[in-house]
Amino acid sequence: MSEMMSIPQYGWKVRLNHVFPERRNQRVKPKLNQLPPLVPLGLRYLIWALNTLKDGKRPLMNYFKMKTGKQIYGAPIGGIGAGTIGRGFRGEFCRYQMRPGLYTYHTVAANQFLVTIKNKDGATLYQQVLSPLKRPKSKRLSSWKWEFDGSNAQYCALYPRAWTEFKIPEHQVTLVCRQVSPVIPHNYKDSSLPCAVFAWEIENKSQEELQISITFTFKNGTGGKDDKKGGCWTQAFDEADGTVKGVMIHQQIRNMQCTYGVACRNNSDNVTTETRFNPNGSGAEIWQALLNNGNLRVEPEEYRPGNSREEVGCAVCCKNLVPPNGRASAEFSLVWDMPQVRFSGSSKSYNRYYTRWFGNEGTAAPKLSRYAIENYHVWEKEIDAWQFPILNDRDLPDWYKSALFNELYFVSDGGSIWVDIDETEKLPVGDPRIEYGRFGYLEGHEYRMYNTYDVHFYASFALAQLWPQLQQVLQYDIRDTIPQENLSRRKHLYDGQKASRKSAGSVPHDVGDPEEDPFVNINSYPIHDVADWRDLNSKFVLQVFRDYCLWKDPEYLKAMWPQACTVMQRAFSWDTDGDGLIENGGFPDQTYDSWIMTGASAYCGSLWLAALHAMVEMATALGESTEPFASILKKGKVAFEDKLWNGQYYNFDSSGAPHSSSIMSDQLCGHWYLKACGVEDEVFPKENVKKALSTIFNFNVMKFKNGTMGAVNGMLPSGVKDLFTIQSEEVWVGTVYALAALMMHEGMVEESFKTAGGIYQTVYERIGMGFETPEALYEEKHYRAIGYMRPLSIWAIQLAWQRRNEPVD
User: Fold this and answer.
1) Residues forming beta bridges with residue 645, ordered by sequence position
2) Are strands 244-253 and 173-180 parallel, antiparallel or unpaired?
3) H or E element: which one contains 619?
4) Mean pLDDT, the chain, as a whole number?
5) Can you give the three-state secondary structure of 57-93, one letter per residue?
6) Looking at 231-325, which runs of residues are DSSP E strands?
7) SS3 of 749, please?
8) pLDDT above 70 for 3
9) What pLDDT is recorded for position 65?
10) Which of 20, 21, 370, 674 could form a disulfide with 244 if both were Cys (CB 3.0 to 4.6 A apart)?
11) Where are the alpha helices (DSSP H) in 420-579?
């Protein structure tokens, strides 16, 4: 078996019959002391959600139908921003995201790989669905043989690839399927493509020649009721003079044209196709043809159903004669051409970014199929060149190598949308959006808001290092929203007060909901008035500075500088006592949106001081005046130490309330960003940083679940977790990775990996939520918000690791 085809050394590995030791859900019951602020919020939410449903829309945070982890997912397929299809580690095609930012959670039984083994005399020795799944209900596909022995198959995910190895010991045959998606750092064309390749290697260790066929079956739609709305039909095609052969399924998904293409490389005319397959029938037309001949029936070039509600399926089969102790291969592609998309609240159509090369007419499926099959080896060389130095680093733990790459699934499967700029938009020469379009991704699968900025602050380390142009166009969009205002009034759910949807001079919480008109109707978040959130303005400044430090792009810095000054000017008003340090307003006015900070706080205070330092550095680089930032920073540093330092760590806030002495795991967030920027100036006293990190490790990590679950958000100095609010007792996966990155910057390597490793053990090994990593974990039984953006912050650990051996300027 070739090295590329065999199960790799690193990655997330399970047998196909694997059962996870722990199952959790989202049915969290708040403590009695946590209820007072939640009850009125819950009542207002109920009214708002019912009105939203009445208007024919789904709430962007739907607490009526929270998802429970299915413990099935593996690496999804598809590039960035053009839709994705989730795949289970047992082979399921599941969790479709064809409509931008909206998911359907269906496992489609008809989408399968089948194997047929015949001897040299043509007798069928073996035929099997290559999945341990049970036969579907309602007698669908009843003629197929299901329930492959999962103990004879192993799965390994190392995103953007995955391997599944099937052993058929009674015939001494081994099959390995390598799943490849074009998610490639710094390659913007191929990373935008809606496709994947399934490269099969067949090994015959017996002493006789075998005829072995691999068949790929697929149906229209996404597995839901809409599949029956009709209008779909199939059409066979061949490309490159017949060397790529396949079938298209033409359909509409919510009134948007979408064409699936299933294809195979056709060597020596060994590929047959089926255009007339009933996915709701017994499946006999597929099964019997394979059983008899090892290939598919000769069918018409196209099939148009007579019944307007009929679902359609197709199949592609690759047959090989495999000599004794020999090998063969089969290369399949799956593409979906959905070139133009519309959001529910808008009549405007957007061209997906990949249409620059493949057109927006909806006829690209054959061309995409050929391109994928002919180029996936090139993709893999680029993926290997990127991953190899990390995988080959013997000083990095094995689990970390798996987590680092597998958490990247969210860049594509986080509801991402990547579209071209409309020709009517008049952007100045040099604006990166002209070349790289517009990019958005969701806060989470269940929190349906694009580019949620307080969370992207953590996640952005992945984009800034791997797809810097996507980070740049996202930043340009945020920059352009800062002076905008939307004076429409709405009642916020936290306090019932009305306020403008967007105030001029403020950084938005998000750029919109895919069920509305995103990028136009920004700030879809309905709970708080985010104009006075204390973290957003600092986070914009710090991202600009971090990006500049990574990219050394003076034009980017010039473009961002005016609005960085604008948001800092607005934030000056939050320093109510003139000591250089902003105060929190006594309501949840930052990313911990149920955790109240009053007065000076470690979290927002550290972000503020870091932002002031960043402004000084950027002003110097641009030849601008460093005032008033330098003088305010000088005062603020003193106030931060005087008000919050207690000798061992920085207090949660200066309010004097019982929870103000809480040990917050994220208390040095601003210092983390400065270290990521390579800043060696002592904005925060080095000894205090060391003591605070040691305290956090000893309390939030080691006194919580014996150090096996990352760092709890809040821990009291008595050694018990802070129960002030539901968020103080949670473990936030993304902030744990950020904390681990800071520990790494400070030379606490062992502590860093211990802290982050607890997350991997919990999410991937214990509770089976890989590829739907939640925002928050509870100590026992529960989690919150499936499929979340913030865990992409694991790439901040990698930046810190690389910085360890870099010379200091």
Assistant:
1) 650
2) unpaired
3) helix 602-622
4) 95
5) CCCCECCCCCCCCCCCECCCECCCCECEEEEECCCCE
6) 233-239, 244-253, 256-265, 271-277, 302-303, 313-322
7) helix
8) no
9) 87
10) 370
11) 432-436, 453-466, 468-481, 536-551, 554-571
In sequence order, the 6+-apart residues with CB closer than 8 A to the CB of 644 are 600, 601, 602, 605, 650, 651, 653, 654
* Amino acid identity, position 156: C
Other CB atoms within 10 Å distance of the CB of residue 152: 16
**Residue 314, SS3?**
strand
Chain mean position to CA 635 = 40
Select the more confidently predicted residue: 200 or 267.
200
C-alpha 190/C-alpha 183 separation (Å) is: 7
SS3 content of the chain, % helix, strand, coil (to 5): 35, 25, 45
Task: Report the amino acid identity of residue 300.
Answer: P
Name the pairing type of β-strands 210-219 and 256-265. Answer: unpaired
- Region of 580 please: left (phi>0), alpha (psi -120 to 50) or beta: left
Q: Is the pLDDT of residue 269 over 60?
A: yes
| Tokens encoding 529 | 């008035």
Give me the pLDDT at residue 808, please. 55
Give 368-404 pLDDT, tens digit per residue: 999 999 999 999 999 999 999 999 999 999 999 999 9
* Overall size of the chain counted in residues: 809
Q: How many CB atoms lie within 10 A of CB 802?
A: 13
DSSP string, 521-533: S-----SS-GGG-
Taking the C-alpha atoms of residue 284 and residue 277, their distance in angstroms, rounded to an integer, is 9
Whether pLDDT at 144 is above 80:
yes
- Fill in the DSSP letter of residue 761: I
Query: What whole-number distance in Å separates Cα of residue 195 and Cα of residue 263?
Result: 11
Kind and range of the H or E run holding 348:
none
Angle at 610 between CA 607 and CA 613, to 5 degrees: 150
First-last CA distance in the chain: 48
**What SS3 class is residue 771?**
coil
pLDDT score of 56: 85
The two three-digit tokens of residue 352, written as one number = 């997906």
Angle between helices 749-760 and 733-745 (to 10 degrees): 160
Tokens of 773: 């990593």
**pLDDT exceeds 60 at position 587:** yes
pLDDT in tens, 421-456: 988 888 999 999 999 999 999 999 999 999 999 999
pTM above 0.85, yes or no: yes
Question: Are the C-beta atoms of residues 731 and 705 closer than 8 Å to each other?
Answer: no
- Longest CA span, the chain: 91
Average pLDDT over residues 246-252: 97
Of the candidates 657, 787, 727, the one whose C-alpha atom is nearest the C-alpha of residue 30 is: 727
- Phi first, then psi, for residue 152 (nearest 5°) are -100, 15
Taking residues 332-345, report their average pLDDT: 95
* Phi and psi at residue 547, to the nearest 5°: -60, -45
CA-CA distance, 536 to 509, in Å (whole number)? 7
CB 585 within 8 A of CB 554: no
Q: Are strands 112-119 and 271-277 parallel, antiparallel or unpaired?
A: unpaired
Instruction: Report how far Cα 182 is from the mean position of its chain's Cα atoms.
Output: 15
Q: Which residues contact 181 (CB under 8 A, 6 or more apart)?
A: 75, 76, 77, 78, 79, 159, 160, 161, 195, 196, 412
Position 5 confidence tier, pLDDT thresholds 50, 70, 90: low
Measured distance CA(771)–CA(775) in Å, rounded: 12
Distance CA 742, CA 772 (A): 25
Ordered domains of the chain (ranges, CATH): 12-21+69-340+347-383 (2.70.98.40), 421-802 (1.50.10.10)
> What 3-state DSSP class applies to 567?
helix
Helix, strand or coil for residue 265? strand
- The CA R_g of the chain, rounded to the nearest whole Å, is 27
Helix (H, G, I), strand (E, B) or coil at 752: helix
Mean predicted confidence (pLDDT) in 472-478: 98
pLDDT of residue 473: 98
Structure tokens at 792: 């992409």
